[in-house]
Write a structure and sequence with these properties.
The chain is an alpha/beta fold and 276 residues long. It contains 9 helices and 8 strands. Helix 1 crosses helix 7 and helix 6 packs across helix 7.
Length: 276
């Protein structure tokens, strides 16, 4: 096997993939926006129709472990000078932008930013913003602002928790938001409306150092997939070995279930698969 030839082919495939990446692709978004304060500030000001929002930090792929030990990975996490927290999520799949997911992200931010012993009044104002490929809510609007209200009076509940859905399918070039969404779907920086986004995309698509960074990310992702496949193979081998030992009366069913941490139904499925 010619490993140099394989690497060369993979590199060519990576270059082709980089050329078609867009901001709406979360892998590309995560690379471009890590530490990209100017870009995060521009995107947030455009979405919120402001001009005075000042971002002081922005990170991507931020892991948060909540109280129930379920962890989530935030695409973009930004903080402004007023200590307001912004989570920007890129979702191409409608199912990935479910309303309950937005609710969970909001609660995860609360758990992260209110330390033990602190008063609830110290919770920061939070924004969970989903930029979606399609019109998830389905009312044909470019943007949806979700807020709690008191039903009987329509008075704002004013808990400083905000959820926003940006409709990526809305690309009206007569509005700043529509032009922003156009740029999020551009593969060619030269076709973008806004220089701040075009310049950043051009660096990772055309500059030698930027392209090397992207290639390294794609290589790491490829290696991670391979390792996961190998791990699955090891697990499958362990399962088959234990089921064989059970069938040969070398180990009990309860021992197999305990070692593999599986239920009766799963155990029966494995035995059935082995006997096929």
């Amino acid at each position: 096997m010619n490993y140099n030839l394989i690497r060369e082919k993979e590199h060519e495939e990576d270059l082709k993939r980089i050329s078609i990446l867009r901001y709406i692709d979360d892998d590309f978004m995560s690379i471009c926006f890590d530490g990209f304060i100017e870009g995060a500030e521009f995107v947030l000001n455009t979405i919120l129709d402001r001009s005075d929002l000042s971002v002081i930090s922005v990170k991507t792929q931020v892991h948060i472990s909540s109280f129930d030990n379920r962890s989530i990975c935030l695409d973009v996490l930004a903080v402004d000078r007023d200590n307001k927290i912004y989570n920007i999520e890129i979702q191409r799949s409608d199912s990935g932008a479910s309303f309950k997911r937005a609710r969970y992200h909001s609660s995860a931010l609360d758990s992260k930013y209110l330390m033990k012993g602190k008063n609830f009044s110290e919770l920061p104002e939070t924004y969970v913003i989903f930029i979606t490929e399609n019109d998830v809510i389905g009312e044909g609007k470019p943007i949806y602002f979700v807020e709690r209200i008191v039903l009987d009076s329509d008075k704002s509940f004013d808990d400083e928790e905000h959820i926003i859905y940006v409709n990526g399918a809305y690309k009206d070039d007569g509005t700043e938001l529509g032009r922003l969404m156009h740029d999020f779907f551009c593969t060619n920086p030269d076709d973008m409306n806004f220089d701040v986004l075009a310049k950043r995309a051009r660096y990772y698509k055309e500059d030698e150092k930027g392209v090397m960074t992207m290639c390294k990310v794609l290589e790491d992702m490829r290696n991670e997939v391979r390792e996961e496949a190998r791990e699955e193979g090891r697990k499958e081998g362990e399962q088959r070995g234990l089921i064989l030992a059970y069938l040969q009366n070398e180990i009990s069913q309860s021992s197999v279930m305990r070692i593999l941490n599986i239920t009766d139904d799963k155990f029966n499925d494995l035995v059935a698969c082995y006997n096929q």
